[in-house]
């Protein structure tokens, strides 16, 4: 049974989300298709560049992403309230950057100014656009539709390229946000497409490491010790309660632990004991690993503690939500270890 997206992502409220969009018709998003032997590796850049481009126009912050062979995953936050603070000119500029319409057919400066002016002169239309720039659904639409058109053109076919609805999970607490980020960043490792975080191309963790490598030693220390911020989009959202260095250590350690249902893990362990930051996210390493590894399998519409999940269920008129039993199992595990 499908539910209105607005139950999980209310259009006028800020929130954190884990989204997944998958290809259909056995289509290959990126990589090499083992059936046709065609290489689509360049499409990874399409996706990554589009994510970063849209993050500069929409009221979103991108915290984590990974582009895989037949799907991509993103952890992001949306803040519709931020879009309400933009001037009419800023709204028009951001919208026309994403949906240029007639602007794409002309380079005449006066004509472009007239198109922008016509938009700012229509308050009803402008308010609708302002709302869309803070919408998760419109962000995903602006991401998926151009990629589908380019892929279909390249494949010389028509029809659906993506599944009809992208999967969306609300992340109800900071622990849920960080565990989802780690899950997404370790996607290539679990799929045995990378042996190290540095080899995990087209992921946010690789982008964070690349940024660190470009810095001088002094700048590198400042970067690693700063609060964990988005890799793209709004910086206005409150940073997460850990440093960049702590997050990278956490992802590294998590990736070194074998997943019972997956083939891949990071090679050459760098640390035997869990990083200190883990103890602020879970009472026991097994609890942390259980949440990370169960991001998609143990949870469905939302991720959080049992209390947060039940509160979300009550908010949308349900008596239960998938993941509550898993969270209660974590509580029992914690009690047994105390």
TrEMBL record:
Designated name of the protein? Transposase
Sorted alphabetically, the Gene Ontology BP terms of this entry are:
DNA transposition
**What superkingdom does the record give?**
Bacteria
Identify the InterPro entries for this entry: Transposase_17, Transposase_17_sf
- PANTHER family from the entry? TRANSPOSASE IS200-LIKE DOMAIN-CONTAINING PROTEIN, TRANSPOSASE, Y1_TNP DOMAIN-CONTAINING
GO terms of molecular function: DNA binding; transposase activity
């Amino acid at each position: 049974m499908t539910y209105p997206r607005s139950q999980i992502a209310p259009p006028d409220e800020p929130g954190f989300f884990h989204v997944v969009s998958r290809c259909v018709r056995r289509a290959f998003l990126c990589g090499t298709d083992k059936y046709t032997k065609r290489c689509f590796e360049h499409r990874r850049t399409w996706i990554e560049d589009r994510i970063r481009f849209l993050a500069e126009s929409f009221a979103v912050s991108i915290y984590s992403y990974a582009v895989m062979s037949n799907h991509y995953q993103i952890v992001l936050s949306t803040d519709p309230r931020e879009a309400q603070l933009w001037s009419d000119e800023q709204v028009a500029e951001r919208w026309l950057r994403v949906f240029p319409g007639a602007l794409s057919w002309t380079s005449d400066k006066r004509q472009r100014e007239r198109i922008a002016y016509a938009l700012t002169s229509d308050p009803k239309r402008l308010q609708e656009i302002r709302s869309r720039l803070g919408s998760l659904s419109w962000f995903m639409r602006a991401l998926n539709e151009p990629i589908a058109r380019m892929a279909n053109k390249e494949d010389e076919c028509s029809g659906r390229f993506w599944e009809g609805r992208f999967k969306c999970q609300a992340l109800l607490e900071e622990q849920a946000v960080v565990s989802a980020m780690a899950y997404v960043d370790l996607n290539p490792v679990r799929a045995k497409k990378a042996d190290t975080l540095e080899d995990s191309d087209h992921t946010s963790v690789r982008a964070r490491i690349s940024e660190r490598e470009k810095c001088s030693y002094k700048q590198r220390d400042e970067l690693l010790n700063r609060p964990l911020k988005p890799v793209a989009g709004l910086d206005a959202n409150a940073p997460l309660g850990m440093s960049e260095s702590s997050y990278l250590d956490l992802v590294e350690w998590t990736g070194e632990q074998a997943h019972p249902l997956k083939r891949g893990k990071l090679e050459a362990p760098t640390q035997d004991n869990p990083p200190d930051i883990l103890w602020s996210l879970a009472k026991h390493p097994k609890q942390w690993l259980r949440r990370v590894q169960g991001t998609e399998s143990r949870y469905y519409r939302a991720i959080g503690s049992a209390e947060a999940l039940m509160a979300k269920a009550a908010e949308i008129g349900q008596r239960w939500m998938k993941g509550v039993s898993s969270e209660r199992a974590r509580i029992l595990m914690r009690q047994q270890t105390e």
